[in-house]
Amino acid sequence: MNLEQILTFRRAVRKYDAQRDLDPEKVKECIRLATLAPTSSNMQLWEAYHITDPDTLSRMAEACLGQGSTRTCKQMVVFVTRQDKWKSHAQAVLEANIREVEENSPEDRKAARIALQRQYYNGRMPFVYRRCWGLAGALRVLITRVKGLFHPVARQVSEADMRTVVHKSCALAAATFLMAMSEQGYDTCPLEGFDSLRVKKVLGLPRHCGITMVVPCGFRAPGGVRGDRFRLPLSEFYHRI
To answer: Which residues pair with 118 in a beta bridge?
Structure first.
């Protein structure tokens, strides 16, 4: 399928065919493709939990309020934010960027470019990702507002803002996964209706992580798609300046 066919095929499927199984390796490959999605500063602060165990699927259906897509799906993928891993990810990205500079940059630019990378990942990332019961974010907001009096600054630096940042990055990965699944001919249903505490308990996740999206997967059954797709006119979305 080309991109338009993939996007047209993808629908939120609410009921799946109980007789048709998915190939878990193909679903895993779709998750691998999701890792190619962009993330803020390439920090990649997300994880995907691929559920195939019937008992866990049943418990997840209960945590997802008993919705039809969760009761009938053959597999499920849960996209999770892991802001707590910012230190190790920042270090890994920094090392990769330094290797890239050393291999591909002109000799007279290497030192400056490596210094810039160290400043960003050893300085900027700790500044925006550290948390302390909201206090660190409040201090960042204050510093940013003062700097913003004199020149443009990135103002979304509170702890709530940074949670939004990692959820946006995770959502990009989830959207890539949905398209990859459609390309395989598999159906999905991105859900936000779930009890996040119970989902974390089922998956054994730490309380401080975030649940961005629960995605039941399978083959659509008759009646699994609720009517024709409705979208507001393009004029509601498109603004050329």
So the answer is: none
The H or E element that residue 58 is part of is helix 54-63
113 pLDDT exceeds 90? yes
Question: For residue 41, how far is the Cα from the chain centroid?
Answer: 14
Measure the CA–CA gap between 27 and 177, rounded to whole angstroms: 9
pTM above 0.85, yes or no: yes
Question: Cα-flanking dihedrals φ and ψ of residue 185, to 5°?
Answer: 85, 10
pLDDT tens-digit readout, 15-52: 999 999 999 999 999 999 999 999 999 999 999 999 99
The tokens of 185 are what? 């001919």
- Backbone torsion region of residue 227, taken as left when φ is above 0, otherwise alpha when ψ lies between -120 and 50, otherwise beta: left
Residues in the chain: 241
Which two three-digit tokens encode residue 228?
Answer: 């024709």
Tell me the three state secondary structure of residue 232.
coil
Domains of the chain and CATH, by start: 3-84+161-227 (3.40.109.10), 86-159 (no CATH)
- Grouping H, G, I as helix, E, B as strand and the rest as coil, residue 49 is strand
Minimal CA–CA distance to 71: which of 13, 16, 10?
16
pLDDT at 114 over 90: yes
Residue listed under structure tokens 């996040």: 196
- The tokens for 14 are 């609410």
Q: How far apart are CA 203 and CA 116, in angstroms?
A: 39
